[in-house]
Amino acid sequence: MWDMSFYKNKKILITGHTGFKGAWMCQLLLMAGADVTGYALEAPTQPALFDLCQLSDQMHSVIGDIRDLAHLKEVFAACQPEIVIHMAAQPLVRESYKNPVHTYETNVMGTVNVLECVRTTASVKSFLNVTTDKVYLNKEWEWGYRENEELNGFDPYSNSKSCSELVTCSYKNSFFTGTDVAISTARAGNVIGGGDFAADRIIPDCIRAAQAGQDIIVRNPYSTRPYEHVLEPVVAYLMIAQAQYEDQKYAGNYNVGPNDSDCLITGELVSLFCRKWNEKTGSSIRWIDRYDGGPHEASFLKLDCSRLRRTFGWTPTWNVETTIEKIVEWFDVYFQNGDISTCMKQQILDFCK
């Protein structure tokens, strides 16, 4: 059901557009000919993919905090979006232990503010709240969580995203029933890809170590995660937003994750990265296990994506091996001072074939 041409001239507002996932979404929508407005804080990393690709020159980029309701309302009034995709968040588990109040303010009240703007902006027809696979009460079992499982994330980040889901459900029931606004949430797995420079994420940690010619330190190599290329959820989000725009029967909650065969333990993922990086660059990097006794994180997490498959005929496009190859390709271009924007666009075209 995904149709890139649907987005031509559509007015789209994206929160969190300066982040890693937001930059990939903006680039794809610009290639589709959409009229894109972004609302977010300054890019959260240095360097930042959004800045490297000079995306602010190609769209209406507004720097603002989603906790600032008055400013957010001004932006909604100015751009009159038809589709709103909410991705702005404090996205890191470890950071949420350090700054829980900020995490809850951003991830819960930020969602309230965005939904309040949707409620009071007549142009909006489709709203998608992007959350996480970590919203579920994690029972450390071996099968994937379904959309009807209990929401009760353990740590402040995961729990705040559970709350964001509940806020969305309440607003949907209280204010959007019987209206022409379709509301959905999407719960994605662990997203990886070229251009991610964040702290406390496994692929950026690998890249920083490879760049420095050092061993990769893996603090929790035996945790199982649903790793997927960033384009998997980005395209799924746009597919859901389009489908519910055209027919509200598609509104709901959706998991977006890889096939079970691509749910790897972190050590396996890093081993695959080392092999692909060494093949590409002639290096000889390796990783070492150095558990640091950090705060609690789930050790086993998988998603059941049957609903997305059944509803849309969706399947993942790239397996984990192809995903790592694309990541290595992107960062090799980056380190060679090549044209990363062209590389990014080509990867989007390859994916969308």
Automatic annotation (TrEMBL):
What superkingdom does the record give? Bacteria
Q: Where is the signal peptide?
A: none
Where is the NAD(P)-binding domain positioned along the sequence? 13-326
One Pfam family, please name it: GDP_Man_Dehyd
Q: Which InterPro entries match?
A: CDP_4_6_deHydtase, NAD(P)-bd_dom, NAD(P)-bd_dom_sf
Please give the start and end residues of each transmembrane region.
Answer: none
Q: What is this protein called?
A: CDP-glucose 4,6-dehydratase
This chain's source organism reads Eubacterium plexicaudatum ASF492
